[in-house]
Every structure is written in structure tokens, then in C-alpha cells.
Amino acid sequence: MRKINILTKKVYNRIAAGEVIDRPYSAVKELIENSLDAGATEISVYIEKGGKQLIKVVDNGTGIERDDMRAAFLPHATSKISTAEDLDKITTLGFRGEALASISVISQVELISVTAGNGAHKVFCEDGKVGEILPAALEKGTEITVRNLFYNTPARAKFLKADKKEEADVTNFVTRYILGNPQISFKYYTDGKLCLQSYGGGLDEALAQVYGAKTLSECFKIDAEKDGVRISGFIGNQNFFKANKTYQSLFLNGRYIVNNTISTAISQAYASYTMKRQFPFYVLFVNVPADIVDVNVHPSKADVRFIDNKFIFGVVYSVISSVLDGTARAAEFVVGGGRVPEIISSAEKENKNAVYGNGNQNYAKLNLQSGENDGKNTKEAEIEKLIEKYKPERAIKTEEGFVEADKSHNTTAVTEQPAYSKHKFFNPAQDLPLDNFISVNGKTVMSVSDGTVPPDFAKSAAYEIEDGYFSAKQQKIEFESCKFKGNLFNTYLIYEYGDSAYLVDQHAAHERLIYDELRKKLAAREIARQILLVPYIFETNQSETSFIESKIPILRGMGFGISSFGAGAFRIDEVPVDLQDMDTAKFFAEILERIDDFKEIKLEDVFKDKIAMTACKHAVKGGMRLTEAEVEALFKMIDGDAGLKCPHGRPVCVKLSKRDIEKMFKRIV
Q: pTM to 2 decimals?
């Protein structure tokens, strides 16, 4: 019986489409790039319901000839390249001829276009089937309307995110195209509302439209050429950092990319200025000869591969670090607006953070390192060390394309796994189905196949649920049977219980009790609010705005009075009364840190750290002498649970058996 099936055109086209178009943002990306390749100077983008229901891109480009309109929907039909040699010097954003073909297979597409001196025409395509070409009305360029994305591929559609999250990702990419094409006028509408607009007035204007005019005063504007590589754009000064990477935009030969070699070089250049959880701000354009880079790595074209990563790393690091460190060469790289930065002596060079203001342009002080060719030798030596430490993969070009030459330096050390592995699951005492298991030394001690748990594990009192996990439960002390024997250093309370002695850390115990009480209030949303005398206002970019908007109900439930404050800003006028001493700015900065990698972050988890800090501040301190009544009240609150830990993981109670003590005094061996 034959086992190998030849897929039909309908099936393999849908599979191929999924490689190119996986979410609404990727459809928007491909259509904008087609408009840019067509020479458009004005582009309007419309989306509805995060792009699931509607995506429309209108441009004033050269348009598509009537005779080419049906062919535009065919796979691998493109006007960008014609021979295999063209792949070695790609200068357009699109070149595979896959975008429109892929979109038309998984949606309903209407294409209207007009070329100079001709009338407009339209064609409709659904499920990959192209209709007849008909007369239409359009003054200039092309209008492409995409409806009901993934309507015929439910397996893909069910993995789409909520409308607002899809919208946030589309907005993020539109922002990149505004920054990456500052000479182009953009309009971007979401659900009928104008969300972003640029006027084609250059990079300064585009940056101000996206991030606000005051961002310009926090950046260096650079334009550098080194070893045939040109690097231009804006980089944040030595004191200007953001909480996440959404403020980083990198364009290689006009194409927006995310590339590890270049981003690592930039991060290392900022290394001596950044603190933990800080990220540099930059909008950078890197231009290299087309024959030293391969953009044909993946259908999404999100990354590229260089022939020599080490060379690219060194050039980028050298330019950025020269500007930040204030070497003499920075005068060549910084766009000065008529003023040359002051050169200071080597005795002053330690003051790296000194910045001169000049209107909207800041300049780092320059370091003149005498006897070292204006610092070049020292800097190049530093670069070489970094290159070896962060040595990227190298690729070489062959007839078959680019291949990795050596991955030996990327070997990952194998680390031993812990013997104990704790996994989340439901409490078996409630007869709820299990969703995971617990393993000890690699042996499963819970069964998920039949929903049962070994009797000695589930039915005993040796385990309990803590923060959603099953964990070892210590035996409780009977309060009535304990004898208080005093304290050590006004910090550790001593109790005698049978043949054992217990030392209770009064601060850790009280801290845990306060922490548990605050968490109960949080869970029950029973949090009183404190009005701020001066409201706290923080600004956000488009990605952060969508993220915060999606979390407003949770934040309000936690006790924050939060509301929108114009475009790209939020106002906090109330905070939880139990946490009024909390650093509000730091709390929201910590939330925004996580939007890159943890889109589904639970704010309650972030709040735990703040609750723990508050509990620590309000708990009795070590060295504070307690009255007998206070000691008794504290121990009653503990309820004899010797297994408690403070919110930071320190034990509340330590047990010493009589045998342990007698061994210390060598009464027994």
C-alpha cells in the first residue's frame, strides 16, 4: 500500500502561506514593504480587530500594470529579481514573490491599482482563486484590502492572540517602518481612529512623532563611516535607558531586523553605564555592501547573516563606545549642529557621565589619552577582548549559499539537573484532576495517566499546597505544650517542646504573618486606597500602552487608581494604603520590563515582591525586645507551624533535638 502522498496545490499553498504569514502583523509588514518597494511617499494603514477582520494598505507608488494584476497573486511572482545572481545583491525589501500569494490563500483580498497614464483596475482573490480584472476608481498607486485573515485555516486562527494584543504587535511594526523610513509620510488607523502619523520630514521628526520631542534631547545623533560600514541615527546618552527592548530599532540597508551580533555589540558598548534591568535606547541605521550580507535566511526576513560577524561586531562596538566614552574620534561621529565637543585631559576621563547640553543635542566629554594615538590602540585592544568573549558565529559563502564555518565556540556546557523537581498541580484532597506530576531523583511519584496519587503521598499530612505547589509540610507544634524559655539577642525566641528546642526568628515570623495577611487582602480585592497628593504620571510607547491598558482592571483591583492621561501616558492618583510607602515609579518600571518576554505576566506575581518589602518594613525587628504578651501573641499567630519561611525564603523556626544538643557536648557519640 502506498504511504507517500503527493499533496494537492491547495494543501501545500496553505502550508507555505503559514511560513510567511503567521499573524496579522506579518501581513501588514509584507504589504508595507511592497508599497515602499513601489516608491511610495505616502502610505496609509488601516486595521480592525487587531488585523483579524481587516487590513488595508493604501499607497501612492508606481502601481501595478493591468496585465500583471492576476500574476501578482501567483507564488514566486516578483518584479524585484529575475536571475540567481540577483540574490547576491538584493536591495529591495521584498524579493521572493511570496507575500501577496500567501495572503490570498488564507484570506479574502481585493487589489486596486493604477499606473501613470492609465485607468484603475481591480481584481478579487479568495482562497487562492483569482477573479476577473474589472475597472475601478483610484487616483494613484495601489490599495490592497485583506479581510478575514485565516478564515479558511481554523487551526491557525485559534492560535491568534486577543484583538488588542494583535493590534499591539501590528502597531509595533508600523512604528518601526515610520522610524526606518523617515522620508515617507505614514498614517496608521486602528478601528477607525488615527493612532500614528508622520509627515516625511526626516528622522528627527519621525523620532519626535513616535517617542516625543523631549527624547531628542536625551540622545546623540550620529553619522559615522568606518571600514566601509556606515552607522547613523540616534543613540541614548549615558544616562538615558528604558525598562525593556521595545525602544530599540535596528535597520540594516533599510530593512528592520533583530540581529544578535549587532545588538550584542551595542549592549557591550553601554555595559559600563547600564545598571541591572536597563536597556539602551537607539534607532540605528547600519549600511553595508550587499555582497557581505545574506538577507535570504528565512521567509520572514527578520534576521540576516553576515559573512564576517567578527568584523561587523568590531565596527559597531567601536563607533558606539567611542561616542559614549568620549574619545577624540567621537567628534567625527556625532552630528554636532555647529559645535565641537570639548576635549578633556586624561585626568578627567573617569568622569564618563558628564554631558554638555546644546539645544536639543547632548555631547559627551572627550577623552584624550596621551601617547596612545588618541585612544585608538587601547580601544582596539578592548574590542578584540570583547570579540573573543562574545565571539559570534561566523558564516562563509559557498556556491550553495552561506554556511556556518565554526560552531565550536558556541558549545553549551551541560549542567546537572537538580535531584528534586517540583511541578504545579491541583490539590488531590479536593479530587480535582492533576495537570502535572512530582518527581524525585528522576522517579515519578505522582501518576497523571489515571489521575491517582500514591496513598502514602496524597493521603498523609506530610505535604501541603503552597503558592499552587505541593511541598513538604513540617509537623506542627502544639502551642499549649510549649514552654517559653526566653530569647537570644532580643531576636530569637526559645521554646521547649518535648525532647526538642525551637528557635523562632521574631522578625522572620512576623514578616511572614504580615505578608500572608496582605496577600489574602489582595486575593479578595479588599484593599483600601490612599489618594496621592501629587499624582504619578508615566509615559509609554505604543507597545507599552496596549500592555498597560490590558492590565487596568487588575491594577484597579489591586488598589491603584489608574487612568489614561492623554496619548501615550497614564495617571496614578491612588495606591494601596498598605503599600503607600512603595516606590510607585519603580513598580511600574518593573512591570514594563517584562513585556518583551512575558506578555502573559500576572501582575499579582510582581506584586508579591512589593508585599514582601512592605511586610519586612512593618515587622518587628531583630534586636527589639518584646513583652511577654507580644511574644505570646506572636506565637499564637504562628499557630505552631515550624515549617514557615519568610517571604524571602529564610526559615522562621529552627529545631534542635535533645540528641543534637547532647552530641554537641559529646554526651553521646
A: 0.61
